[in-house]
């Protein structure tokens, strides 16, 4: 019988014994918009995400939010890894951005598999390194890249095939690490230049090449 570990391609490098132990755990369904953890919580399990997307946010004292990174199947959460292996409390908040299917691995099992399975150990620390790179990218963007350039990158990244971006000004502000009012002013300026169009409930990209030029400047 094919189990969830056989369908999770990101676990292909894990040895048979570790896969068999993981297979005994049952996947759970988590509804969209569920808060998975909040600042001050202790990590209860190591999450293996099979489907869906999790957003991990930092909440400032001013009430502003910043998207630190997203977790998709095959990726892990830096804060959860630190909590499970090091006992650190969560400093951010994780929210299900869609319906999720995930496997919750008990901390004791994680520690045992890391000690006994080279494949599982490689998966955990490779995924940790990837998420740490995401965090460093966010830090670099917020510290050194202009708002206009961050906004251009975010619009291009989240636009669909028709150039539509189904995010509010507040949601974009969270993604690029600024205030909603700042995003609104920048979008108005882009609209006046014919780069985007502010439509009801969404933003439409009009001049993709100009946005790409702005985003490219953010990477140079």
Secondary structure layout:
Layout lengths: L3 H4 L8 H8 L4 E3 L4 E3 L8 E6 L2 E6 L5 E7 L6 H9 L6 E4 L3 E6 L1 H10 L1 H27 L2 H12 L5 E2 L3 H8 L3 H13 L3 E4 L2 E4 L2 H12 L1
Antiparallel strand pairs: 1-7, 2-6, 3-7, 4-5, 4-6, 8-10, 9-10
Helix pairs in contact: 4-5, 6-9, 7-8
Key descriptive features of the protein:
single chain, 220 residues, Arc Repressor Mutant, subunit A, 2 domains, four-stranded antiparallel β-sheet, 20% strand, elongated
What does this structure look like?
With about 220 residues, the protein is of the alpha+beta class. It has two domains: about 5-140, Jelly Rolls, CATH 2.60.120.10; about 145-220, Winged helix-like DNA-binding domain superfamily/Winged helix DNA-binding domain (Arc Repressor Mutant, subunit A), CATH 1.10.10.10. The protein is built from nine helices and ten strands. The protein has helices at about 5, 15-25, 80-85, 105-115, 120-145, 145-160, 170-175, 180-190, 210-220, and strands at about 30, 35, 45-50, 55-60, 65-70, 95, 100-105, 165, 195-200, 200-205. The strands form three sheets. The chain has a four-stranded antiparallel β-sheet. It has a three-stranded antiparallel β-sheet with strand order 1-7-3. Strand 4 and strand 5 form a beta hairpin. Helix 4 packs across helix 5. The radius of gyration is 20 Å and the shape is elongated. About 30% of the residues are buried. The model has no long low-confidence stretch (mean pLDDT about 90).
